[in-house]
Amino acid sequence: MKFTALQIAEILDGDIVGNPDVEVSKLSKIEEGTEGSLTFLANPKYKPYIYNTKASITIVGKSFEAESVISTTLIKVEDAYKSFSKLLEYYNQAKLNKFGVEQPSFIAESSTYGTDVYIGAFTYIGENVKIGNNVKIFPNSYIGDNVKIGDNSILYAGAKIYFDCIIGKDCVINSGAIIGADGFGFAPNENGEYTKVPQTGNVILEDFVDIGAATTIDRATLGSTIIRKGVKLDNQIQIAHNVEIGKNTVIAAQTGVAGSTKIGENCIIGGQVGIAGHIAIGNNVKIQAQSGVGRNVKDDEAIQGSPAFSYADFNKSYVYFKNLPKIMKEINVIDKKVNGNS
Known about the structure:
CATH class of the largest domain: Mainly Beta
Helix content: 10-25%
CATH topology of the largest domain: UDP N-Acetylglucosamine Acyltransferase, domain 1
CATH superfamily of the largest domain: Hexapeptide repeat proteins
Number of helices: 4
Number of strands: 40
Oligomer: single chain
Distance between the termini: 81 Å
Largest sheet: 12 strands, mixed
Number of domains: 2
Shape: flat
């Protein structure tokens, strides 16, 4: 897929300085640019690279003025970073511009799908599935019975959606993600053995939810595990049965949330956080990476540690903790002077 400087300038409403017919077919960092690549300059510390870059086209701000000879064609825009991001989105959409049903694949006769849909090879779609318009389902995906998928959603290769789950509009589910596997429900019997508790609920993803690769979201025992509008989950996250995550919350990789916990809106949760079950985390909460949360958390708290407590108190305590050997020596010296201990 090739674009000329003129085509890119039209997309970005930019001005060309150089050859309008030069073509690019790939993206690069400015310091790693090669012939046929497109790059950008937004951070001033990378400015020296523009005089040596081999990239064919470079997006720059309108205020940029070359101080010596450059070989790259410039496209001047109001904001280089935002324009490059816009171009990335355009490029990504162009790559995803697939349509039709590839073979071999299986689609149950009772299932329906809308217009401009792409269903990749070796995909299985069960009974009574309803798929909206412009949905992209990449190869080797599994869609169980009675699943609903809203318009413009994307399921990358190998995604698995179990029966009865609901995927909203404009969602992205990355490769290896599993939506709707059984929750971890077992009850001990009189013999000390564990009997499985049937998991009869489902998972609901509202609109504009992103699910990272190899992330798992378990179906509810009863009712629904709910991921609210705009939530963003990183790779390799475990969300247990009957959890609810409020809108626009973001969670980094390798975090685990135990069953029936409620997480509020607009929370920011770092990587490798462990959250116990049956607790409530308020709105606008910030949890630092590798924290262990075993209690309810009020709105607007920032916490850290394991068990987690106030972020400010944690930082103060850590200053003392890392100096603990020195502090103990000083305490021992004082003890000898006061008590005459030898």
